[in-house]
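hey can u check if this looks right to u? its 232 residues, i copy pasted from the old doc so theres a chance i mangled smth
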Amino acid sequence: MARLLLIEDDLTIRTPLIRALRDRGHAVAAASTALTGLRDALEDRPDLVVLDLGLPDLDGAELLRMLRAVSSVPVIVATARDDEREIVRILDAGADDYVVKPFTAAQLDARARAVLRRAAPEDRDADPALVVGGLRIDPRTRQVSLDGVPVELTPREFDLLHHLAGRPGQVVTKRELLTEVWRIPYGGADKTVDVHLSWLRRKLGENAQQPRYLHTVRGVGVRLAPPAGTVG
């Protein structure tokens, strides 16, 4: 049973959605404002947050950025717009997935289960840890360390780094990253990859101008490789 936090101010949407998700076996808590939702997410530590963008006290995308600064809880955003710019905006802000209004409880339940599967630790007998230079990426515990120091990553940042670490020294295209990491078709949304790479670089203590592990190949993609002079 997953513990979901629904942040939705519209009572006519919130009440039936809570009932339907509970009928599908989830434990559901709800908040009607952004700040209440942020507090509940930090105090109650749900397995997944469903976030409406149209909240009365704060833009949902701003709340998402605030939440991402302090938590790696998976987030599905509910939006009334389905254009590419809106989708890129919410993915860039740190969403793991999105649903477009109006949506059914069955659709949300399916997306929630898919996000939770991706965020769950892998079987302990599968997929050994990957080591690239001083980086260690363990898919079983979804933990990363750099030179022995833990690195806190969001679920999407972990998936991105793990995908690259599985292909050390190879140039991985943005098309492949969007398809394999984001599970969305390639449609000119390069900014989504660029923003997450920027966040990942910052957490690894580097930048695009002075890369150590993440090397951009202009017009092609990105390559993960150990710093010069290291082994692995």
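The radius of gyration is 18 Å.
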